[in-house]
Amino acid sequence: MLAKIRKTMNRIVAAMFLCFSFLSVYTLWGQEKETLVLIDTDMGKIKVKLYNETPQHRDNFIKLINEGRYDGLIFHRIIKQFMVQGGDVTSKDAPIDKPLGDGDLGYTVPAEIVYPKYFHKRGALCAARTGDDTNPERASSATQFYIVTGKFFTDMELDKKEVEEGIKYTPEQREAYKIQGGAPHLDNKYTVFGEVVKGQDVVDKMHLVATNDKDRPLKNIKIKSMKVVTK
């Protein structure tokens, strides 16, 4: 009798083990790992993660990185309390007086605006694009991106923006904009495809540099390299 009970218990334990193993594998399949990218600049290193919910932007960014497209380019547009922007393919070794901002690769990436889950909080990695007048589909530039620095907002200011923009901020957005800062006026208009996970202090240093009347830094800030990393 005791032997039968032990045999039954062993079967139950084995069945439970198989069940938990299956669930573990299923969880790994169902939760695709997010890609990490290291951006090495003259002012320090920035690590970003790319969202899986914006696959076309993620895959395009990875492709360009693996091709070395960003190596040697500069952050050509910086606006204090707003953002730092790079990715103009004509900016490599560009003279300090050369106008920049139009360099691209001749194609666009369809908009992948996942709002309100992803929004323009401090550290958001976003795709630049041309304006609505010529680009009503809000398709993104093939190469140009920006990282938000932004500024802090009060509840009263956010209430006003809700009326102006015709949107409703989530509790998470309100907390982020009040405590971390950001650029809420761009929400639901540009694709946010990642965020800074390490090195936001480097981005914050960048947005304080002196610029000319075209928002170009007076001293070039170079992207030395970009690469996909595992941690």
UniProtKB/TrEMBL annotation:
Residues 40-228 form the PPIase cyclophilin-type domain. Its EC number is 5.2.1.8. Pfam families: Pro_isomerase. It catalyses: [protein]-peptidylproline (omega=180) = [protein]-peptidylproline (omega=0). Keywords: Isomerase, Rotamase. It is an enzyme of class 5 (isomerase). InterPro entries: Cyclophilin-like_dom_sf, Cyclophilin-type_PPIase, Cyclophilin-type_PPIase_CS, Cyclophilin-type_PPIase_dom, Cyclophilin_A-like. One of its GO terms (molecular function) is peptidyl-prolyl cis-trans isomerase activity. Belongs to the cyclophilin-type PPIase family. PPIases accelerate the folding of proteins. It catalyzes the cis-trans isomerization of proline imidic peptide bonds in oligopeptides. This is Peptidyl-prolyl cis-trans isomerase. It comes from Parabacteroides chartae.
